[in-house]
Structures are given as C-alpha cells and as structure tokens.
C-alpha cells in the first residue's frame, strides 16, 4: 500500500472523538436518521472489514459534502471512509435501480437530450408523471431535475469556429451537465478562454464518475475514471492544462477518484496534477498579469454560493477573486456549508427533505438578498437554489463572459 | 462471625474456578465460589484473547497441544457467542528458521492439531497487510475469545444450577483441623464483614495466587508468576490470528479480537502476582516484532498496554524454570501432602479451562461419592443480560482446517458466533445510535444499565461486561456518563454522590495505568483531550476531598489493587 492509500485507510486512527465534525455536519444537524460523521466514519470503521459482512446502513445518509474533513483537527478522511463504506454496502446488497439511474447523468442526459427534449421536459413538469417516477423509481416528486437541452455542447462545439489568433492551448472538460443540460455554460467558458488568447481543445471524455462514486458503484466509477485518464493523459503530459467548469468534475479528476477508488498510477497522478477548475486557472492567469481586464462595469449586488465541492479543492475562493476584478460588481458570500443537493443525494425520495433542510440557510440568504440572480459554480447546486428560491442561478463564468461583452 | 456450610468451596473466579463451579453445580454438589475481585479479575481478564488451535505447543508441549485442539472444538459448541472464528496462520518470516515449517507440520499431525499449508498469495489475498516476504503459511483453527463474556456466561449457568458466586470476597484464611482443611474465612470487601465457610472440600483455583492460598493450609505449592505484557492497537488491520512459525517466543502473535489487534506477549518472572510493571523496552520490542509480521505495524496507533501473570506450576522435581510444562496439573493434597479436604488446580490455559474443571470435579466427585457424569462439554452456555439477543449469523467458514467443525457447530443452531460487526449491526438495527454511552465500543444505555442491574460493583466491572471505556478515547466521554447512570440507578440503595465520585476517580486511574506505556502520537493527543475534559471542564482533580468509598462499591481495596511498578 502506498502512502496515499495508507493516509486514508489509517486515518481513522487519528480520531480523538472530539465531536467537532459531528457539530459541523449539515446533515446530522437536520435529521436523526444520520448519526453523524464521527459515528459513521472513524467509529464505525473499527467494526468494518473487507471480507466480513457489512454491519451498518446509516452511513448512506452521508451526502459527501466533505464539511467534516475540513473541520477535523486531526486530519481524518471521514468523507472518503464513508464513500468506501457505502461502496461496500452496494457491493454486498446491490445498487437500487434508482441509484443506478441517478448515478448515470450522462446516460440519462444522452437519452433525453435532443430535439425531443422540450416534450420530455414538459412531461417531467407534470405532477402525475413525477408522482409515478417517485413511486416507481424513488426520485422525489419535487426534486429539481434539470431540463434537457435541445442540442449537446459537443455538437455545438463541432460547428464552432475558433478565432485564429490563439497563442496557447487548453483542454476543456465539460462534464455531463454542460453537455446535455447547460451547453450555455460551456459556451461562456469557451468564449472567455478564447478571448484570453487560448485555443480550446475538446478531448474525448466520459462522465467524471462522481455520481457513481457517491452512489457506491465503484466498479463503474473506476472504468469511467480510467477511460478519462486515458483520454486526458496526453494533454497533461504535453503541459496543456485541463480546465473544467464543473467544480465537482474537476475535484473528482484531481482527488476524489484517485483517493477513494485507490487509483494511483503515474497517468492518474499526471491527470490529477494537470487539472484545474476554470476559476482557479483564470485566477492564476490574473496573478501573472495575463488575464485580460477589459471589463464593462456591471452594477449589481449578487448572492454567491461557493459549493462544498469547491471548498474541498482547498483553493480559497477563486471565483470571488476573479469576479472582484469586474468594476461595479459586488458579491455577497453565502457562508452556507451546503445547498443540500450534494449531487444526486437530494433527489432521492427519502433524502429530499433532508437536502432542503440542509440548504435552508442558503435559501434564506438568497431570498433575503432580493436579487433575481444568484451565482454558484456547481450545476446541481444551481438547480437546487432555483428550485428552492425561484431565483435564477448562473455559473460565475457566464457573468464573466457578460463583463467581457462576449457574444454567446 | 456468620458461618455457612456447603459441599465445595471454590477459590478463584477466573476461567478455571468458574468452570469448576459450573461443573460442580451441574452434578448437583452444593457450591460456593469466592473471588476477591470481580469475575476475571485475575489472569483470565488480562490475557491475550486467543482460542488456541494448539499449534503453538506442538513441539515443546505436545500434551498441551492436544488438549487445546480438543477443547477448541468443544468451546465452539458451548460458547459460540464468546468466540470469533478468525482462523489462524503460522508464517515463516525471513527472521525464522525455514526448516521449522516441516517440523511444525509433522508435530501438528502427531498431536492432532488440524493444519493446512496455503500459498503466500492466498495469504496476501486474505490479509494484504502481512509481510509479502513471508515464505510459508500454515493455516490452523485459531480463534479469538472474549474471556469476560465466557466467564460471565459460565457463572450464570453455575448459578442457574444452584451455585453461589460471591465476588469481592477475599479468602483471608483457611481453616485446618489436624490433617484436614475444613473451611475458610472470607472477607466481604464491600463492608469488611467476615464470614466462615464450612465445607467438605476446598478447590483452590486461584491461578497465580494458588501458592498463597495453599500456604494458608500449610502446604507448599510453587507457582512462579510469569508476567506477560500485551499491546492493543486501535483497529483491526487484519482478521486472522498470525503466529510466527517458530518455537514460542516474545511478541510473536497478533490476535484480532473485538475492535482491536493485540500483539503479545513477553514472559518475565515476577516475585508477586499483584506487583509488576510494564517496561518501555517490552513495548518497543513487541512493536518491532510486529513490524516483521505486518510492515509498519509499529506506526499504527497503540491504544493501551496491560499485563497478566501466568500461573506456571513448578513441580518439586523440576530443576530449571524453562522446563516447566504449560499443561495443567491437579494436585490432590491428601496424596501429595497428607492434607485432606483440598485440591489445587494449577497451570493450564484459558482454552483448556473446561477440561481442567472436568478433571478437578471428577476427582472431587469421587471423593464425595457423587457419580453423576460431566456434561459441560455438551450443554451450551446461557447469554448474560448485557448481551444482545442477536439473530444475525455470520457466514460459516467453508475453507481451511476449521471448515468441517464450523459446519458442525452451525448445525447445532446455538447462539451465533461473535463477529467484528456485531455491536455496530445491533445498534443500527435498534437505531440506538443516539443512546450510546460508550461510543467507541458501541455500548448502549440499555446494556450499561443491564450491567449495573446485574450487580456491577464499580465502573471496571461494567467495563468487563460491555467494554465501556476500552476504545480509542479510553473513557474520555463515557466515564462521566456511566458514573451518572450508576448514581441514578443505585441512589435509592444508598449510593451517594461521594461514592460515585470515588468510582469515577478509581476508573480514571485504572485507565491511566494502561495509557502511560503508550503515550505518544495519536494516543498522547487523545490523553490531552481527555485531560481537558476531566480536569479542565469537570475539575476531577478537585474531586478527591468529596470522594468516599462505599455504597456497595469496591473502589480502592488493597486486596484487589494491582500495583504497576517499575521493576
Ligand atoms: C499474558 C498472558 C497471556 C495469555 N494468553 C492466553 C491466550 O491467549 N489463550 C489462552 O488460552 N490462555 C492464555 N493465557 C493463559 C490463561 O490466561 C490462564 O491460564 C487462565 O486465564 C488462568 O485462569 P485461572 O482461572 O486459572 O486463573 P485466574 O484467572 O488468575 O483466576 C484466579 C483468581 O483467583 C482470585 N484470587 C486470588 N487470591 C484470592 C483470594 N485470596 N481470595 C479470593 N480470590 C482470590 C484472583 O483474583 C483471580 O481472579 C495467557 C496468560 C498470560 C499471563
Ligand atoms: S461528508 Fe458531509 S454529510 Fe457526510 S459526514 Fe461529512 S459533513 Fe456529514
Ligand atoms: S473531528 Fe476528527 S478527530 Fe474529531 S471526532 Fe470528528 S473525525 Fe474524530
């Protein structure tokens, strides 16, 4: 076992039972069904062993938001231990159809995306249909399902003509959401990157695998990550930065997949080291004085929520840093731990209300702001915010594109 | 002085004495067992936790090996809830004589210890943390065993058959009339009352203290107390017992038991079974030996260290201490010393306790004219009230030398075998996770209360029943909770706040003893937090003046204090 693996598996030994994680966990705060990170993490781990029957079930209520990891004073990798425990449950008891389905955003997206999307979206807005979906599959009738797009991001990109002035290259990791549900986020990213003199390359790619990881399907997650590494490693080796707009996809490539799935090959490490969240990348350009600052002022006061998955990058607040360069724009940070959706967590029938309660602080803040627009880097969080507050939400890159005055 | 009459007085509430009491009672003899502490207060409660396959003794002590192999199967049938079917490996590491492997297998065959060689790859598949440089692996029927639970269950059965079990009763003298022992004087340590017990026969099962008891009757029995130190690591990095494939030596076994992995032991002669120390070099040596079996073992978090004393019986004709056999010996003092009315059962292993009891009670029954046969090998033990009535049956082993026995045991449909996840699974089933008193070891309020109601006489007794305070935080969060429950429950019976304070201080001190030898890294950090809780928040350092022994608790009696000293 290498040191990364040991630092995970042995981290349960660092727990001094201080309860700090349990007092910080947003899920434990709102439901009695979840005993909290200390219990399901390092404590329960002493009663688990591969090759023995799985003793527990309550760990499945962990949303994977990683707040616990951030507050633990001794460095216990609680969220990772939880993810692995869930995978053991899945390996032993099987994956429910619902979880199989929600873990495959790409597959679902591929089937629903296209000219037939409006019809499908309309159907899914009807309450009898959602009632049936809840009964049969277990997705809560009110849960925020994204509307499918009439075209994919990749189809648009194929027709897109890049400016001939590019000096440098980046590879873009769009993820499932941008491809099937929100191509406009990808378009904004491409516009911003090209405006800053980059030629954007579009590697072959699959779902990053995070929904598979968080639903405990490690086998499928491993093959997804291995395929992505194979497709991306040549870019990483050439020093071409891999940039993504979905904070959870980039976190998965950087850290979650290698650590949780115990994948530590040199290729995996090269891709992890060469991947950046888009605002991390733009901020580093700004720091080197290489980011264009020809912004038009935007005189607005907007609520901004940094997703828990973004905080887990441990980068500070790159989107805030870059957007602060836009004259007139004032962002108010939510300081909320989590919006509650946690990827696919809040979609589930038994977890929907927990997710809504977890996000209550954030929803309050957004509503109190009186703004008709909120900013957030992660797609599922945006859908949750809009669902809970009725306020439109956008990726910060869209505002940046607007500030540059770029045509989308 | 009150005097009571019985057929047999058993001295010692370890595995052996309790096993004797059960056997006696089952055969219809009136029996009183006295134990100066709680049950398992002696060596039984401080042992390594190994249900021996016998493999360890095949070369040096073949008789012990055969006895262990037979009893191993018997115990699986009568106390599955106390045992875990971990299986065991004897492994040849680069530090061991490669030639011993063949000798080992040959001697296993000769002594009737089931064994099967497996490939190193198969070993690593099952236990990836083991040293890949191991060259040969032999699988045997080792298991791990909870001696607290086993002794409790045995005592419960003895009581069901009419025996009286008196814990916290200290034998202060034996009564000898001419050439006959006719009884004993015992002191109730809860209130100092002295009681006379008249009996037809005394059965001395006082383990390492057997010599002290015998001397009260003017008989010389030489028991050399051999101290063995063990270290528990914070979690089970493996699920199989591993032994070095060599002649028994220090630090050569790792036993996964409950939530911990225990490495042991050392073997040092000490002058007195109540006074011994744990030395830093013992700990260091064992951790270094652990590294040979599991690379990086010494870097895992050490939880606690403790020591027990082996009751090694030295026969009159043995010149060299090293030649003392590990098997047990029944001493009939009428034949041996011309003193009637007393037998001593000395030496042996936890694994062979039932056989020791059977032989002792056979001899005793003959003397008392009782002809009923021993049935302790067939009748399963009852579950004490602190146990979950669990229904989950862990999967039955299908490979290795233990497979056929496993199937046989399963077919009996007794209580299921213990398995690592048991307590977590029960807490999850009951959804009692918000009601855990000891979180580390998953002891729920209902189980702690059951232990109190069953008569626990201090917090250490509760610990032995439900493992309260035995996990990573070593009581940081559960000691004050348990003290409060004890006070609530026993307040009406006269237990005062001052008595409860004393119970708390007593237990804190007992936990601290085992922490001192491993105070580095994570455990040091833990001790610092525990100090902040007890001293910083609760002011335990100012509790002494308002703490007082009593209320039916025994917290600080010199008769049951084990002194850890620097040797
Ligand atoms: C370090 C170590 C590790 C071991 N590991 C294993 C193992 O893994 N597997 C195994 O099978 N065996 C093991 N053994 C051996 C095994 O633990 C003992 O052989 C067994 O527990 C002895 O039980 P016992 O009942 O004979 O003695 P004890 O358990 O010592 O019982 C004797 C009792 O007599 C009581 N007593 C003494 N004086 C008085 C008095 N005056 N009045 C009233 N009561 C009194 C004591 O308090 C004590 O409780 C180990 C031994 C040691 C030392
Ligand atoms: S990852 Fe989030 S939900 Fe899970 S235990 Fe940690 S803080 Fe709680
Ligand atoms: S914060 Fe860390 S050390 Fe404290 S209880 Fe949680 S896991 Fe243990």
Automatic annotation (TrEMBL), chain A:
<keyword id="KW-0411">Iron-sulfur</keyword>
<feature type="domain" description="4Fe-4S ferredoxin-type">
    <location>
        <begin position="51"/>
        <end position="82"/>
    </location>
</feature>
<dbReference type="InterPro" id="IPR017753">
    <property type="entry name" value="G3P_DH_GlpC_su"/>
</dbReference>
<dbReference type="Pfam" id="PF13183">
    <property type="entry name" value="Fer4_8"/>
</dbReference>
<protein>
    <submittedName>
        <fullName>Anaerobic glycerol-3-phosphate dehydrogenase subunit C</fullName>
        <ecNumber>1.1.5.3</ecNumber>
    </submittedName>
</protein>
<keyword id="KW-0479">Metal-binding</keyword>
<keyword id="KW-0408">Iron</keyword>
<keyword id="KW-0004">4Fe-4S</keyword>
<dbReference type="InterPro" id="IPR017900">
    <property type="entry name" value="4Fe4S_Fe_S_CS"/>
</dbReference>
<dbReference type="GO" id="GO:0004368">
    <property type="term" value="F:glycerol-3-phosphate dehydrogenase (quinone) activity"/>
</dbReference>
<dbReference type="InterPro" id="IPR009051">
    <property type="entry name" value="Helical_ferredxn"/>
</dbReference>
<dbReference type="Pfam" id="PF02754">
    <property type="entry name" value="CCG"/>
</dbReference>
<dbReference type="InterPro" id="IPR017896">
    <property type="entry name" value="4Fe4S_Fe-S-bd"/>
</dbReference>
<dbReference type="InterPro" id="IPR004017">
    <property type="entry name" value="Cys_rich_dom"/>
</dbReference>
<keyword id="KW-0677">Repeat</keyword>
<keyword id="KW-0560">Oxidoreductase</keyword>
<feature type="domain" description="4Fe-4S ferredoxin-type">
    <location>
        <begin position="6"/>
        <end position="36"/>
    </location>
</feature>
From TrEMBL, chain B:
<feature type="domain" description="FAD dependent oxidoreductase">
    <location>
        <begin position="7"/>
        <end position="354"/>
    </location>
</feature>
<dbReference type="Pfam" id="PF01266">
    <property type="entry name" value="DAO"/>
</dbReference>
<feature type="region of interest" description="Disordered">
    <location>
        <begin position="374"/>
        <end position="397"/>
    </location>
</feature>
<comment type="subunit">
    <text>Composed of a catalytic GlpA/B dimer and of membrane bound GlpC.</text>
</comment>
<feature type="domain" description="BFD-like [2Fe-2S]-binding">
    <location>
        <begin position="436"/>
        <end position="486"/>
    </location>
</feature>
<dbReference type="Pfam" id="PF04324">
    <property type="entry name" value="Fer2_BFD"/>
</dbReference>
<keyword id="KW-0285">Flavoprotein</keyword>
<comment type="pathway">
    <text>Polyol metabolism; glycerol degradation via glycerol kinase pathway; glycerone phosphate from sn-glycerol 3-phosphate (anaerobic route): step 1/1.</text>
</comment>
<dbReference type="InterPro" id="IPR041854">
    <property type="entry name" value="BFD-like_2Fe2S-bd_dom_sf"/>
</dbReference>
<keyword id="KW-0472">Membrane</keyword>
<dbReference type="InterPro" id="IPR006076">
    <property type="entry name" value="FAD-dep_OxRdtase"/>
</dbReference>
<dbReference type="InterPro" id="IPR000447">
    <property type="entry name" value="G3P_DH_FAD-dep"/>
</dbReference>
<keyword id="KW-0560">Oxidoreductase</keyword>
<dbReference type="InterPro" id="IPR036188">
    <property type="entry name" value="FAD/NAD-bd_sf"/>
</dbReference>
<keyword id="KW-0274">FAD</keyword>
<keyword id="KW-1003">Cell membrane</keyword>
<dbReference type="GO" id="GO:0004368">
    <property type="term" value="F:glycerol-3-phosphate dehydrogenase (quinone) activity"/>
</dbReference>
<protein>
    <recommendedName>
        <fullName>Glycerol-3-phosphate dehydrogenase</fullName>
        <ecNumber>1.1.5.3</ecNumber>
    </recommendedName>
</protein>
<dbReference type="InterPro" id="IPR007419">
    <property type="entry name" value="BFD-like_2Fe2S-bd_dom"/>
</dbReference>
<comment type="similarity">
    <text>Belongs to the FAD-dependent glycerol-3-phosphate dehydrogenase family.</text>
</comment>
<dbReference type="InterPro" id="IPR017752">
    <property type="entry name" value="G3P_DH_GlpA_su"/>
</dbReference>
